[in-house]
Design goal:
Elements: E1 5-11, H1 16-24, H2 29-37, H3 50-59, H4 63-66, E2 72-74, E3 80-83, H5 94-100, E4 105-108, E5 122-125, E6 135-136, H6 138-153, H7 157-177, E7 182-187, H8 189-194, H9 198-202, H10 207-227, E8 231-236, E9 246-249, H11 250-256, E10 262-266, H12 280-292, H13 296-312, H14 318-321, E11 325-329, E12 336-337, E13 347-350, H15 358-376, E14 381-386, E15 403-407, E16 411-414, E17 422-423
Parallel strand pairs: 1-7, 1-8, 4-5, 4-7, 9-16
Antiparallel strand pairs: 2-3, 5-6, 9-17, 10-11, 12-13, 13-15, 14-15
């Protein structure tokens, strides 16, 4: 008797409201078909962040057991020790377990899969975070690179669109020429666009984005045609997304309480697909901004202006952002802080070398943040509680943040030290 296949179709950041908005504009009819045929629901994902959630979805365990909490890996005191990669995942995922039993898998764009490569039985496309984008076997790589070449030439939102077209076309070719026991594919066009320019996604007018949504829909129809009667098909997202009206800066709150000592470092390039490169003008602007941001009042003014520019021109400011020197928490001298290596981070780390009683310090910081919320007079936070040893349990719980903070819909949590503790978002 032939085993039933398992198919996981992932959409990064696809909440129900975003799906409904796209359906109302005539896109993704294949997903509506599956919704009518299947069972639907929602579950909490804490933290709502790409690397830990996709790793939990495909391993079945919480971050305390697989060791991935964010894009970066941190030591027990919150110092970044490097970007996470495939070796950071310390629990087998479904494709690993399938290979152990001699089954064939197709894995496309699974975060923390493609580098360094841990070979599996079957075929794959390296994930977006891999330093080199490729597919295997060679015949599949030729198809992938044919479409990926358009992504290489594109800029702005079309670059994300062509990346997803390459994923969809490669998926269709693989399914037409090979058989698999397990298939995983993750499309990330929603996440890429919703953070930078939501209107380009929710009210698409660019041909490249329309083509991407239609090609993804065609690929899902290919899955349905081949597997509907002989497989378990799961459509899943790692987290939702919502339009943000305010951003709360956790580090700014902690700094007001004297818990943070800061230093200055470059922001760095915010997105590897933006293809931004500095020139003389952007270097002059970056140097000027880096100088005045060190003065409290001028720094707040320039931060507010920068947020406004980023909102109205999200795809044009990367080359300026690269060289700006911003204040960040010094992990060796700060008692408590949110790491600033990435913009979206939902954890507060305690420098255990600087406190006498970690448990007491954790509770004081939780109370501090809750008091800020009470003083502000709005329900800012959905979740504020202990992370290490509570929400997260397992052999790698000591790498977890001491406190996990998740904002309510309409709010986001930022790590910046400049600006008001609560302000309009980027």
């Amino acid at each position: 008797m032939k085993n039933r296949s398992v198919i996981i179709i992932g959409f990064d950041a696809m909440s129900w409201n975003i799906f409904d908005a796209l359906r109302n504009r005539g896109f993704l009819g294949s997903l509506e078909y599956l919704r009518q045929k299947g069972i639907c629901g929602s579950i909490e994902t804490i933290p709502p962040l790409t690397p830990p959630m996709w790793t939990s979805i495909t391993s079945g365990v919480n971050p305390g057991k697989h060791g991935v909490y964010a894009f970066y890996r941190y030591n027990s005191s919150g110092r970044a020790i490097g970007l996470n990669n495939a070796l950071a995942v310390r629990h087998p995922r479904i494709h690993d377990m399938a290979s152990y039993f001699g089954l064939r898998s197709l894995v496309i764009n699974l975060p923390l899969f493609g580098w360094p490569l841990i070979k599996i039985r079957g075929a794959y496309v390296a994930d977006y975070f891999s330093p080199r984008h490729y597919a295997w076997p060679d015949k599949l790589n030729r198809i992938f690179m044919e479409y990926y070449s358009e992504c290489e030439k594109a800029v702005g939102p079309c670059r994300y669109a062509y990346w997803n077209i390459a994923l969809a076309e490669t998926l269709m070719h693989a399914l037409e020429t090979m058989d698999f026991d397990y298939v995983f594919v993750m499309f990330d066009i929603v996440d890429r666009l919703i953070h930078k320019d939501p209107d380009k996604l929710l009210n698409p007018k660019l041909k490249c984005i329309i083509d991407a949504l239609n090609t993804i829909d065609k690929a899902i129809r290919t899955v349905i045609h081949k597997y509907l009667d002989d497989a378990l098909i799961i459509v899943v997202s790692d987290h939702g997304a919502d339009l943000v009206k305010k951003e709360v800066l956790i580090n700014a709150i902690l700094a007001e309480k004297g818990l943070i000592t800061w230093r200055y470092e470059k922001i760095g390039k915010p997105d590897p697909m933006d293809k931004a490169s500095p020139n003389i003008l952007t270097k002059i602007v970056s140097s000027f901004v880096s100088h005045i941001i060190k003065y409290e009042h001028l720094g707040n003014v320039i931060t507010t202006l920068g947020r406004y520019i980023t909102r109205i021109a999200p795809f044009t400011v990367s080359s300026v952002l690269m060289d700006i020197q911003r204040p960040v928490p010094d992990p060796d001298k700060s008692i408590a802080f949110v790491p600033t290596d990435q913009h979206f981070m939902y954890g507060v780390y305690i420098n255990e070398n600087l406190v006498v009683n970690v448990s007491v310090t954790v509770q004081k910081i939780i109370d501090t943040i809750k008091n800020f919320e009470k003083k502000y007079g709005e329900q800012i936070f959905y979740y504020i509680d202990r992370g290490r040893g509570a929400l997260y349990r397992g052999p790698y719980e000591n790498e977890a943040p001491h406190i996990v903070i998740v904002p309510n819909p309409g709010y986001s949590a930022g790590a910046s030290l400049t600006g008001k503790p609560i302000d309009k978002p980027y």
